[in-house]
Every structure is written in structure tokens, then in C-alpha cells.
Specification:
The chain is an alpha+beta fold. It has a single domain, classed as Arc Repressor Mutant, subunit A (Orthogonal Bundle). It has 4 helices and 5 strands, in the order βαβααββαβ. This is Transcriptional regulator.
């Protein structure tokens, strides 16, 4: 599997989650109030990558949901990199003719 480095901001979020003894809210994980973190899409991206898991709450309200680290997230928090799957193109449906 290929390895992807984390950005400094992502690493900071993961380290914050790792240091906490209990799951943190998305609002607590918004470490820098910038325009990139304004809508909470960075939390959704971390869940999609498999670095965080949503313990409670929904994707519609990312700042009110609570998050904890996955095993992949713990590795990324410690070493600043994680393994990821390459996205492969879906094969065409069998039986299609042109």
C-alpha cells in the first residue's frame, strides 16, 4: 500500500484527538478558525480517509458530532503518515455493447 504524508494541520488535529482521553467534539478539533475550517468539511474528509471515526452525531452537523481516532489515525498522529488505498476505475458493466 502506498503511504501518504499528513499536512501539518491534519497532524495537529490527530495529535489533539490522541491526547484526549475521551472523544472530542468537532468544535474542539477546529484548532485554527480559518476559512478552510469554517464549514467542517475537514472533519468529513478525515472520516472519509479513515483517520477519525464519528462516535456520535451526524455529517450534517460536523461541529456538534464527537470524534475519536481509528488505528490508522493513531499511526498518522504518531508518525505523520498513513497508508491509503489507490482508487481504481470501476470496470464497465459486463454485457454492454457499443
Amino acid at each position: 500500500m502506498p503511504v501518504r504524508p499528513t499536512s501539518h494541520f491534519t497532524w495537529q488535529v490527530l495529535r489533539t484527538a490522541k491526547r484526549s482521553k475521551k472523544p472530542l467534539t468537532g468544535r474542539a478539533l477546529r484548532l485554527a478558525p480559518t476559512r478552510n475550517t469554517k464549514d467542517g468539511s475537514f472533519l468529513t474528509a478525515l472520516v472519509t480517509e479513515g483517520l477519525l471515526e464519528r462516535v456520535a452525531g451526524s455529517e450534517d452537523e460536523p461541529f456538534d458530532a464527537t470524534y475519536s481516532l481509528t488505528e490508522k489515525g493513531k499511526h498518522a498522529a504518531e508518525y505523520g503518515e498513513y497508508e491509503y488505498d489507490l482508487k481504481r476505475a470501476e470496470p464497465e458493466a459486463a454485457g454492454r455493447s457499443r
